[in-house]
TrEMBL record:
Localization in the cell: Cell membrane
Domain Cation efflux protein transmembrane: 11-202
Organism, scientific name: Pseudoxanthobacter soli DSM 19599
This protein's name: Protein p34
A Pfam family: ZT_dimer
Membrane topology: Multi-pass membrane protein
Domain of life where this protein originates: Bacteria
Chief localisation class: membrane
Gene Ontology process terms (BP): intracellular zinc ion homeostasis
UniProt cross-references to InterPro entries, sorted A to Z: Cation_efflux, Cation_efflux_CTD, Cation_efflux_CTD_sf, Cation_efflux_TM, Cation_efflux_TMD_sf, CDF_Transporter
Chain segments annotated as transmembrane: 7-26, 32-55, 75-99, 111-131
Entry GO terms, CC: plasma membrane
Membership in a protein family: Belongs to the cation diffusion facilitator (CDF) transporter (TC 2.A.4) family.
């Protein structure tokens, strides 16, 4: 089983454990804020399952129906994560509304908070694992899952503070008030996840620093060519697609131009994990000069 698969499967296990602990915290206290925290954990489990199947599908090799691979499945999973996060936030707002209408004192708040803190620590550690290894493995689904868990950790901190304030002041309305603030924060996080994932589905270019790296590598490894132009790049999950036109002298043989292309491809593949390169060789009369990549 690949590393991304193991991590995604681990998310399901961790999510189930945290869900059980947070629901126990709610059952012990009756706190709407802790209930909201548990509700978000249900989404964590659902999104972890979605991420697991997404990374498995994205690893399927290209076939006749999907010649460029299945990498965008991870972006679809990330969009689902964002949608579920937003749905959870709306459910929290609904629960907070009813808690405002019928406020009540909490039962066993100290024990419930202790259980919730344990769950939050587990979430925090796993969040770090997901984001670190998701970026290392170039997996948008794992990174999105980690970012979602981070908002969960932050909301859990807010929930604990709210419950403590409600008990210390004797004002039960503080419990649902904190839940509302948490829900608004979750809404914003869900929108950010969806926005980034939609960008991937729309074939956004690679980040500017990577584009500059690509152009530099082409320039320094294209000795014998005249220029490169129309350099384009896009991300699809863990794969970066790169294509450009390489201008060579008209008298150059096919073998000589092919050797230059091999040299450039080797340099790009070594520097950029998951790079897939397509080069169109052109004679010197096709040179654009303006905006092209000069050969060093």
């Amino acid at each position: 089983m690949q590393s991304t698969h193991k991590i995604a499967l681990g998310s399901i296990v961790v999510g189930a454990v945290v869900l059980g602990l947070k629901y126990l915290a709610y059952a012990l206290t009756g706190s709407v804020a802790l209930y909201s925290d548990a509700l978000e954990s249900i989404v964590n489990v659902a999104t972890a399952i979605a991420a697991f199947f997404a990374v498995r599908l994205s690893a399927v090799p290209p076939d006749s129906n999907h010649p460029y691979g299945h990498n965008k499945a991870e972006y679809l999973s990330s969009v689902l994560v964002g949608a579920l996060v937003i749905a959870a936030a709306l459910a929290i707002l609904q629960a907070a509304y009813f808690a405002f209408l019928t406020p009540h004192r909490l039962e066993q708040p100290n024990l419930g908070l202790a259980v919730n803190v344990v769950a939050s620590v587990i979430n925090g550690v796993w969040c770090w694992v997901l984001i670190r290894y998701g970026r290392r493995l170039r997996s948008p689904a794992l990174v999105a899952d980690g970012q979602h868990l981070f908002t969960d950790v932050m909301s859990s901190v807010g929930v604990v503070v709210g419950v403590l304030l409600a008990e210390a002041t004797g004002i039960p309305q503080l419990d649902p008030a904190l839940a509302v603030l948490v829900a608004l924060n979750i809404l914003w996080a869900g929108w950010k996840v969806m926005r980034e994932s939609i960008g991937g589905l729309m074939d956004e270019a690679a980040p500017p620093e990577m584009v500059n790296q690509i152009r530099t590598l082409i320039s320094t490894h294209a000795e014998g060519a005249l220029e490169a132009h129309d350099v384009r790049s896009r991300h699809a999950g863990s794969v970066t697609f790169i294509d450009f036109h390489l201008v060579v002298p008209g008298s150059m043989t096919v073998s000589e131009s092919h050797a230059i292309c091999d040299r450039i491809e080797d340099a790009l593949e070594e520097a950029i994990h998951g790079a897939r390169i397509s080069i169109h060789v052109e004679p010197e009369e096709k040179a654009k000069h303006t905006g092209g990549v000069p050969v060093v």
